[in-house]
Amino acid sequence: MAYFLLAVSIASELLGTSMLKASQGFTRLIPSIVTVVAFVCSFYFLSISLKSIPLNTAYAIWSGLGTVITVIVSVVIWKEKINTASIVGITLIIIGVVVLNLLGPGHGASEDQQSSNLHSAAARK
């Protein structure tokens, strides 16, 4: 459920970012309102997902996928140009998100074991 809420947060962030462009510097009312509501929803659902997903993993996924999909939206919908450096950067973001998901928190010792190890280390000092 937490990853579904994170996906809702990402979708809201994408809507907000697209409407931010459409608001033309907050000079158009409807896109401006949608921008604010979408970003509020995005942060709300991100905060709920953080109850179950570690912050570094959730934020890496949220910002990484948000960035990658925003680039795709900017090219497809807004007809913006993309260059080789952008493609390399996006590829590195994707690699980073994959590495965090495969090797990040939750893939080693359990939280109880980590807490126990910290207490043991502190007691030895």
Q: Brief description of this entry?
A:
The protein has five helices and no strands. It is mostly helical and 125 residues long.
Describe the protein.
By secondary structure, the chain is mainly α. The chain has one domain. 78% of the residues lie in helices and 0% in strands. Helix 1 (2-22) packs parallel to helix 3 (55-76) and helix 3 (55-76) runs antiparallel to helix 4 (84-103). The longest helix has 22 residues, at 55-76. One of its GO terms (biological process) is glycine betaine transport. It is found in: Cell membrane. It is a multi-pass membrane protein.
For the structure shown, list the relevant keywords.
single chain, 125 residues, mainly alpha, flat
- pLDDT < 50 runs, ≥5 residues: none
Number of helices: 5
Can you count the beta strands? 0
What would you report as the Rg, rounded to the nearest angstrom? 19 Å
Structural class comes to mainly alpha
